Each structure stands twice: as C-alpha cells, then as structure tokens.
Amino acid sequence: MAKQLPERQQKVLDCIAQYVDEHGYPPTVREIGNTIGVNSTSLVTYYLKRLEERGLILREPSMSRAIQLIKTATKDVAVRVNDGELLPIPFLGYIAAGVPINVEALAGSETIEINRALFGRDISDLYALKVQGNSMIDALINDGDIVILKHQDRVENGQMAAVWLTDEESTTLKKFYREGKQIRLQPANPTMDPIYVPTDHVQVQGKVVLVIRQLQ
Asked: What domains does the chain contain, in order, with CATH numbers?
C-alpha cells in the first residue's frame, strides 16, 4: 500500500517512522511540516487524515504527539505495531506556564495511563504535570493541559523544559535558551516577557515529550 501513496503522503509517513525510530516518540504536526517542507499545519493534518483513512496510522486529536503507526508501511524503516498497552506515568502535580509555581505544589502519588506506543522504545524516567497558566499558548499548551516529561538535567536550546529556580524555590515551564552566563526562559506568548536567570541558579528537571490537551 505504501508504494501507491501520493508523494506527499508517503513523505509524511516516512517522516513519522523515521522520527519515532530516532526519538522514541512521534512528531508533532508542525515538526512533520518542517521536515517535508510544508508550512501549513492544516495541509499536514489533511495528509494525516488521508493516511488514517488508509489504515496506516491512528491519531488522537486531543494530543500533540498522538500519531501511531499501526503497520510497517515505509520503505526503509520498520515500525512496531501498536499493541495497545497502557503505561502508568507518575502524576506529580502542577507546573506553572506563567509565573513560577512553588515546589510545594509538586506533590502526589497518582498516576495517569498513556498508550505505550506513543513513546516508542524509551519509556524510562517519565512523569506528568498539569499546566497552570497561559504563557505557552503559542506552543499549543493551555491552562489545564497535561505535559509528559522525561526526567533529565540538560536540554538543547529551544526545547521546552521544566526548570527549578533555586533563588525563588519554584518551578516553571518555558522554552530553554543558554546565553553566555545566563539562561533565558522564553514564554510562548507574545504578551509575556522572558525570564533571565544566572546559569547557576537554574536546574533543568525534565524535557517535554508529549502534550495531552484538555478538550473544552
């Protein structure tokens, strides 16, 4: 079936498979567009819908990275079939996408269940936080959404991360940029200013790997 796909749909399918193979989780619609050279997210969504109709992928519209390959459909990349297994992720409380939130809010022993196929091979060190605030709305993260993070102490410039501000004893969700001796924590909201913090006053707590949107 894959060889009979229109060229753009085949590129989208190859992009998804390659991304999962390299990162262990699926790409966002915007990441697919950037890879195949299509600026319109609506057009990429159209291609995804066609692939879903052909039975090559499954999608969950309320999630940012919820694209699942359900069979080996590309020419060069073998993709695991979705087995439907649910993975319990520790839910640790709330994180601010706005002003930093005090660490006392990051507590709890609950879990949420996520389909294992969304994360590919690497499922270690994952945890979930619920977002408070609207500073990341242009990154499609709204108040009340849930973010899944991979615990790690370093991220690349431009990646979205949970960071601990040692002076304020608080944590926040922002895009991370290392600029000389300071860190710029950039909101994805044009009405809000970035936060600048000395490098040794910031500790990365994890990188965002999945966003679960709350439907209104």
From this structure: 2-69 (1.10.10.10), 86-212 (2.10.109.10)
Site of tokens 């936080």 = 129
What is the rounded CA–CA span in Å between residue 119 and residue 170?
28
**pLDDT, tens digit, for every residue of 66-118?**
676 654 333 333 333 344 567 778 888 888 776 555 544 555 557 877 766 66
What the block records as the tokens of 141 is 């993260």
Q: Which of the residues 64, 150, 170, 174 is marked catalytic?
A: 174
Report yes or no on whether pTM surpasses 0.85. no
Q: Is there a catalytic annotation at residue 62?
A: no
Residue tagged 């950039």 (tokens)? 186
- Report, in angstroms and rounded to the nearest whole number, the Rg of the chain calculated over CA atoms: 18
79: Cβ contacts below 8 Å, ≥ 6 apart: 17, 20, 21, 69, 71, 72, 73
User: pLDDT tens digits, residue range 181-211?
Assistant: 999 999 988 899 999 999 999 999 888 888 8
Q: Which of 64, 135, 170, 175 is catalytic?
A: 135
Q: How far apart are CA 127 and CA 108, in angstroms?
A: 12
Residues 83 and 106: their CA atoms lie apart, in Å, by 32
Tokens 């390659």 belong to which residue? Answer: 18
- Residue 109 among the catalytic residues: no
